[in-house]
Design a protein that fits this description.
Layout (H helix, E strand, L loop, with lengths): L7 H22 L6 H14 L3 E5 L2 H11 L7 E5 L5 H9 L2 E5 L10 H6 L5 E5 L10 H11 L2 E5 L7 E2 L2 E2 L6 E5 L13 E5 L2 H11 L20 H11 L2 H19 L5 E2 L14 E5 L1 H13 L29 H9 E4 L7 H14 L4
Parallel strand pairs: 2-3, 2-4, 4-5, 5-8
Antiparallel strand pairs: 1-9, 6-7, 8-9, 10-11, 11-12
The structure holds pyridoxal-5'-phosphate.
């Protein structure tokens, strides 16, 4: 018996026929970049998220980078984010020329430590990026009033949170911009790379549109120095088809999280993720904490039985070689550092059954000596 970690292939099987039909039409039309299919997905995604505008881009890293650039953030500016994120959040800040300022995470939720973010503000701070890590929305009721008072932009990293809702409002709606990744294993994943910036500001949307397309919103009109960072129509077709299933698939993931709680909840030695028990967590990942001395054995034992796991992420960004130049030291962010040693992501995707979870739980119990 094997259990997949993520299952983009299973999702693809569901949309395959319609996708092939549309791609055939696309091939006949010869429009392989831009076109009506991208426009259609952008408006479908804007409606789904409840924002005014959605601008498709090449990937999630670019979504963050272009949103920041459109806010005219660059050299000399500072942008605050959590050190326990996928490195892309910090790369995107760095790629604008601004300085990433990192903070620790909250010990209960893994999400950005809002108090520390507030304390890290300087005269150079232009934006804060709350990362809705693992699919759970950061408590925006705390962050937004502060950011507004301090005139700091909030740019949400929604890469892992497509379809998550906090008090009925979807991720991407809270800040001036929301940035999504459609990497294939995301809750809304393309058949390759893809990303999106959503915003309710017409001006910001237009600027991102220009930035993604060589600085102009049309051919050979180069008003500003931009780049090539477009979402292609083959991805847009897949994404629009999958968007129709997203709420159902997110609900399924929450159900699977419930299975983990049922079968691992009482086990000493495994700390399960805390969440608000509403739609504000869509469980992109199911990350638990265990004794670091047992983690490797657990991972190996699970693998032996065909259960794939991952460590997301093995190092907080401040301790990566890439960002050593920022000058942070081990011990600067103790919660994130400790969690990096303890975390293990268990299988979470639409194919996981309660039987799979029982099987995984039996191995976990065995390794932790409670079998
Ligand atoms: C939290 C976070 N931010 C940003 C990104 C970047 O997205 P992409 O891989 O599409 O560039 C990812 C994707 O892996 C992510 O998980």
């Amino acid at each position: 018996m094997g259990v997949l970690f993520s299952a983009p292939q299973a999702e693809f099987a569901i949309i395959k026929e319609k996708w092939l039909e549309e791609v055939e039409q696309l091939a006949k039309s010869g429009v392989f970049v831009g076109g009506v299919r991208v426009d259609q997905f952008e408006s479908a995604f804007a409606d789904f998220t409840g924002v005014k505008k959605a601008v498709g881009v090449a990937n999630g890293t670019e979504a963050i980078c272009l949103a920041l650039k459109a806010l005219r953030i660059g050299p000399g500016d500072e942008v605050i984010t959590a050190t326990n994120t996928f490195i892309a959040t910090v790369e995107a800040i760095h790629n604008t020329g601004a300085k990433p300022v990192l903070v620790d995470c909250d010990p209960d939720t893994f999400l950005i430590d809002i108090e520390q973010a507030k304390k890290s503000k300087t005269a150079k701070t232009k934006a804060v990026i709350p990362v809705h890590l693992y699919g759970q929305i950061v408590d925006m009721t705390e962050l937004l009033p502060w950011a507004e008072k301090e005139r700091v932009h909030v740019v949400e990293d929604c890469a892992q949170a497509a379809g998550a809702r906090f008090h009925d409002t979807a991720a991407g709606n809270f800040g001036i911009a929301g940035c999504f990744s459609f990497f294939p294993d995301k809750n809304l994943g393309a058949v390759g790379d893809g990303g999106m910036v959503v915003t309710s500001s017409d001006d910001l949307a237009l600027l991102v549109k220009k930035l993604r397309n060589h600085g102009g919103d049309g051919r050979y009109k180069h008003e500003i120095a931009g780049t090539n960072s477009r979402l292609d129509p083959i991805q847009a077709v897949a994404l629009k088809l999958k968007l129709g299933y997203l709420n159902e698939w997110n609900a399924r993931r929450r159900e699977i999280a419930g299975f983990y709680e049922k079968h691992l909840g009482a086990l000493e030695g495994v700390i399960l993720p805390k969440h608000r028990r509403d739609e504000s967590h869509i469980f992109h990942l199911y990350v638990v904490r265990v004794n670091p001395e047992l983690r490797e054995t657990l991972k190996k034992q699970l693998l032996k039985k065909g259960v794939l796991t991952a460590i997301q992420y093995p190092s907080p960004v401040h301790l990566t070689d890439a960002f050593a130049f920022l000058g942070y030291q081990p011990g600067d962010f103790p919660v994130a550092e400790r969690y990096a040693r303890e975390i293990i992501s268990l299988p979470m995707n639409i194919t996981v059954t309660e039987q799979d979870v029982e099987f995984i739980a039996s191995i976990v119990k065995e390794v932790l000596g409670k079998g």
